[in-house]
Amino acid sequence: MNFNELIQDPKADLSVAMLATVDDKLCFVIQPKNRWGKNELEQTTIPFGGIGGKVESGEDLLSALSRECQEEVGCSCEIIPNNKKFIPMISNDGVAFTEIKNAPYGLPEFIFKNKKSEPGRKDYTYVFVYKSKLLDVDKIKPLDNPAIIMMNQDLFMRVVQNEMILAQAVQ
């Protein structure tokens, strides 16, 4: 698959996201309170997500990542190159490892292909997820979201594999 064909697909909106790192920790934003929920024990669940958003008209993917980083956490970022030949494309149908050719600034770590979720949107959205390093770490602050959370990879894996309460996470 050619990279330009992918980003010029007339049926697709484009978004970017980053697996952001600070030293050896992954950085996520806590979602706004209106997105919080309750589990079956009536404990508050607080979703977190990556830094990113929609690619604006005339903007390339790396410019969109830089803008989203500034808007969401107030700092700049450096993309960590992915030199793999095949990357996972994840959709509702599963995962397919795809060879992407002619990517001008390196491949993303993976691409999500999400079906249309809102009226007025195109048939699907491609979310290009790049690994990045946050720079100017002394400037990091939550701008669009209530908080930022940083965790090492072991804690991240525990969180995504099992729902846990905060007291469990800090043990």
Secondary structure blueprint with pairings:
Layout: H1 3-7, E1 12-22, E2 25-30, E3 37-38, E4 44-45, E5 48-49, E6 51-54, H2 61-73, E7 77-79, E8 86-91, E9 94-99, E10 110-115, E11 124-134, E12 147-152, H3 153-161, H4 166-169
What percentage of residues falls in helices of 4 or more residues?
10-25%
Which term fits the overall shape? globular
Q: How much of the residues is beta strand, in percent?
A: 35-45%
Poorly predicted residue ranges: none
User: What is the SS-derived class?
Assistant: alpha+beta
The main β sheet shows up as: 10 strands, mixed
Explain the overall architecture:
- The protein has 171 residues and is of the alpha+beta class.
- The chain is 18% helix and 38% strand.
- The chain contains four helices and twelve strands, in the order αββββββαββββββαα.
- The longest helix is centred in the middle third of the chain and has 13 residues, at 61-73.
- The chain is globular.
Describe the structure using short key phrases.
171 residues; alpha+beta; ten-stranded mixed beta sheet; two-stranded antiparallel ribbon; globular
Quick overview of this protein structure:
By secondary structure, the protein is α+β, with helices and mostly antiparallel strands. 18% of the residues lie in helices and 38% in strands.
